[in-house]
Specification:
Radius of gyration: 21 Å
Structural class: mainly alpha
Number of helices: 5
Helix content: over 70%
Order of helices and strands: HHHHH
Number of strands: 0
Oligomer: single chain
Number of domains: 2
Length: 114
């Protein structure tokens, strides 16, 4: 099935109320679960946790690339391009934060004696 026919099918399909309620239930549950997990993390581990989360967001970049390649609609191409740019910024920021954290906790560098 081509991407354009999938988009057309998704636009014309009506979503049942039960599916919307189930989606909201999963979203609210994920928010509470995420809040509980993050509040239990000690402050010294917040930076590594966030840098890991930003690095994992490379999956978002892959999804954005896939959406741009298969899209035949101009709006989809624009949204895909914006997603690519934002995901790339997020991934690069995650690696920069990780590098800074590693330099901060790495200790002093030894000087070479000549």
């Amino acid at each position: 099935m081509q991407a354009s026919s999938v988009l057309t099918l998704a636009a014309t399909t009506q979503v049942s109320t039960e599916l919307v309620i189930f989606g909201l239930y999963v979203f609210v549950l994920a928010v509470f679960l995420g809040f509980e997990v993050i509040t239990k993390v000690p402050p010294t581990l917040h930076t590594p946790l966030m840098s890991g989360a930003n690095a994992i967001s490379g999956i978002t970049l892959l999804g954005a690339l896939v959406s741009v390649v298969g899209a035949a609609v101009t709006k989809s191409n624009i949204l895909g391009f914006v997603a690519i740019v934002l995901a790339t910024v997020n991934v690069i920021g995650g690696f920069l934060v990780t590098d800074r954290m590693l330099r901060m906790f790495g200790g002093p560098k030894k000087k070479k004696s000549e």
